[in-house]
C-alpha cells in the first residue's frame, strides 16, 4: 500500500524532478521513500516504548511487551518486502550489501519470533532506524540533485553523522554487550550464540556503513569544491 501510494504521488506531473530520473533511479527513489516511512514508524515505536516505561527492563531476553512485539512484527514484514523488492527491481546491483544485511536481520527476527526469545533486545536495536530515516532523506534529496551547496542538504548530513553515533553505533555496541552479559537468561545456548553472532555481524556492518558514508561525503565534498 505504501509503495502504491508513493508511486501515485511521485508520478504526478507536478513533480518534474522524479520524471527526469532514469528508470532505475525512479525505482530506487520509491524504494528509499518506503524505507524512510518504515524508519520513521519503527523508531517512533521504539522511542514510545522506552518513554512509556513499560519496556522489559528486568528481562531483556524472555519478557516482551505488546509494543515490542508489534515493532518486531512490523519490521519483519517490512524487511521481507524490501528484500523481495530489491531482488525484483534489480536494485541489488547498486547495493548488494543490503541483501546481506536483510538476510541477517530476517534470520534473527524470525528466529526470535518463533522462539519468543530476545524480542526486547531486537526492539531496542531498532532505535538505529532514527539514523536510517535521515540517511534515507539524504538519499532522496541526492537523487533529486541536491548537493552540499544547499544548506538544508548540509544540515541533513550533519544530523546523519550525529544520529549514526547516538542511535546506531553506540546502542548496537551496548546491546551486543548486554547479550553477552545476559547470556545466562537464554534457555538454550544456540539462542545465545544466534543473538550474539547476529549482533557482531550488525556491528561489523555498521563499520562498513560508516566507511561508505565517509566515501560518499568525500566524493560530494570534492564535487562541491570543484
TrEMBL record:
<dbReference type="GO" id="GO:0005886">
    <property type="term" value="C:plasma membrane"/>
</dbReference>
<dbReference type="Pfam" id="PF03798">
    <property type="entry name" value="TRAM_LAG1_CLN8"/>
</dbReference>
<keyword id="KW-1133">Transmembrane helix</keyword>
<feature type="transmembrane region" description="Helical">
    <location>
        <begin position="28"/>
        <end position="48"/>
    </location>
</feature>
<dbReference type="InterPro" id="IPR050846">
    <property type="entry name" value="TLCD"/>
</dbReference>
<feature type="transmembrane region" description="Helical">
    <location>
        <begin position="60"/>
        <end position="81"/>
    </location>
</feature>
<keyword id="KW-0472">Membrane</keyword>
<dbReference type="InterPro" id="IPR006634">
    <property type="entry name" value="TLC-dom"/>
</dbReference>
<dbReference type="GO" id="GO:0055091">
    <property type="term" value="P:phospholipid homeostasis"/>
</dbReference>
<dbReference type="GO" id="GO:0097035">
    <property type="term" value="P:regulation of membrane lipid distribution"/>
</dbReference>
<feature type="transmembrane region" description="Helical">
    <location>
        <begin position="161"/>
        <end position="181"/>
    </location>
</feature>
<feature type="transmembrane region" description="Helical">
    <location>
        <begin position="101"/>
        <end position="128"/>
    </location>
</feature>
<dbReference type="GO" id="GO:0071709">
    <property type="term" value="P:membrane assembly"/>
</dbReference>
<keyword id="KW-0812">Transmembrane</keyword>
<protein>
    <submittedName>
        <fullName>Uncharacterized protein AlNc14C326G10639</fullName>
    </submittedName>
</protein>
<dbReference type="GO" id="GO:0007009">
    <property type="term" value="P:plasma membrane organization"/>
</dbReference>
<feature type="domain" description="TLC">
    <location>
        <begin position="24"/>
        <end position="206"/>
    </location>
</feature>
Amino acid at each position: 500500500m505504501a509503495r502504491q501510494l508513493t508511486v501515485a504521488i511521485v508520478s504526478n506531473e507536478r513533480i518534474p524532478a522524479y520524471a527526469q530520473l532514469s528508470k532505475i533511479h525512479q525505482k530506487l527513489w520509491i524504494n528509499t521513500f518506503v524505507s524512510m516511512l518504515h524508519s520513521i514508524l519503527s523508531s517512533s515505536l521504539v522511542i514510545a516504548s522506552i518513554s512509556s516505561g513499560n519496556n522489559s527492563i528486568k528481562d531483556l531476553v524472555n519478557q516482551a511487551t505488546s509494543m515490542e512485539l508489534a515493532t518486531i512484527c512490523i519490521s519483519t514484514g517490512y524487511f521481507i518486502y524490501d528484500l523481495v523488492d530489491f531482488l525484483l527491481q534489480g536494485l541489488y546491483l547498486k547495493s548488494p550489501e543490503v541483501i546481506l544485511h536483510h538476510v541477517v536481520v530476517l534470520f534473527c527476527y524470525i528466529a526470535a519470533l518463533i522462539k519468543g526469545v530476545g524480542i526486547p533486545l531486537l526492539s531496542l536495536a531498532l532505535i538505529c532506524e532514527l539514523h536510517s530515516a535521515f540517511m534515507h532523506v539524504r538519499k532522496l534529496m541526492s537523487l533529486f540533485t541536491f548537493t552540499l551547496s544547499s544548506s538544508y542538504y548540509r544540515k541533513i548530513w550533519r544530523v546523519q553523522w550525529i544520529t549514526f553515533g547516538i542511535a546506531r553505533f553506540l546502542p548496537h555496541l551496548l546491546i551486543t554487550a548486554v547479550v553477552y552479559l545476559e547470556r545466562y537468561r537464554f534457555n538454550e545456548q544456540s539462542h545465545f550464540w544466534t543473538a550474539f553472532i547476529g549482533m557482531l555481524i550488525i556491528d561489523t556492518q555498521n563499520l562498513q556503513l560508516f566507511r561508505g558514508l565517509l566515501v560518499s561525503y568525500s566524493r560530494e565534498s570534492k564535487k562541491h569544491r570543484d
